[in-house]
Give the backbone structure.
Amino acid sequence: MLWVSVEFGSVLFSVHPVMMSSSCVCMLSGLTVYRIGGVTTPLGTIRKRHAFVMGSAAVLAVVGVCAILANKNRLGKSWAPGTIHALLGLIGIGLMMMQVSVGAIKFINAGISMHSWHGVVGPMIAAVFACAACTGLWETSTAFSGKLILSMISTCLIVTVTVIRFRIPFMRTQEHGELTTEERQFQRAYAGGGSKGSSAAEFADDL
C-alpha cells in the first residue's frame, strides 16, 4: 500500500488496488478449497472454509470499491465508469454480490440441492475480476517493468488455480451420505462418469 501511495500520491486511492488484489487472491483460493480440503476433513468444514474465503473476498471488494468512490468524490470525478477497467469492475462486483447471495442461501440450506449453476458461474466471475485487475494495471502510469512483474505474478497465480481446478480431483469425502444430488452429479461428471456407488462417486464439490 505504501508503494502504491508513493506511486500515485494518495493513501485513499492505494486502498483500492490493495483491497481488490486481495479480493482476487481470496476468490481464486476459494475456487480450490474443495480440491485441497483433505481426505479426513468433514464436508461441513470444507463448506465453511469456502464460505469464509469467498465471504472475505466480497468484504475486501466492497472496501476497495468504497475507497475508489471516495477518492473520486475527493477529486470531484463522476462515479460513472469511464474505462474498460471500471466497466469490468462494475460488472464483476454486481456478479459477485449475486454469487455471494446465492452462496449464502446454499450454505444455510446445506444438504438440499438448489441453484446448481452456482458452481459453474463462480470461475467465470473470477475471470471477470482477473480481467478487471489486468486492465487496471495496464491503464496506470506504472513503469513497464513494474507492470510486467505484476502481470507475471498474477499469471502464475491464475495458472496455478486453473491447474488445481482441472487436474486435481474433487475432495474425497468419507461422508458421501451427506452429499446432495447436485454434488453427486458433480462427482460423476468430474471423476470420469462413474456410476453411483463407484469409486468415482467418492469425489464431491458444490463450489
In short: Residues 97 and 185 are 26 Å apart (CA to CA). Residues 1-9, 192-207 have pLDDT under 50 and may be disordered. The first strand starts at residue 171 and ends at 172. The chain is about 70% helix and 0% strand.
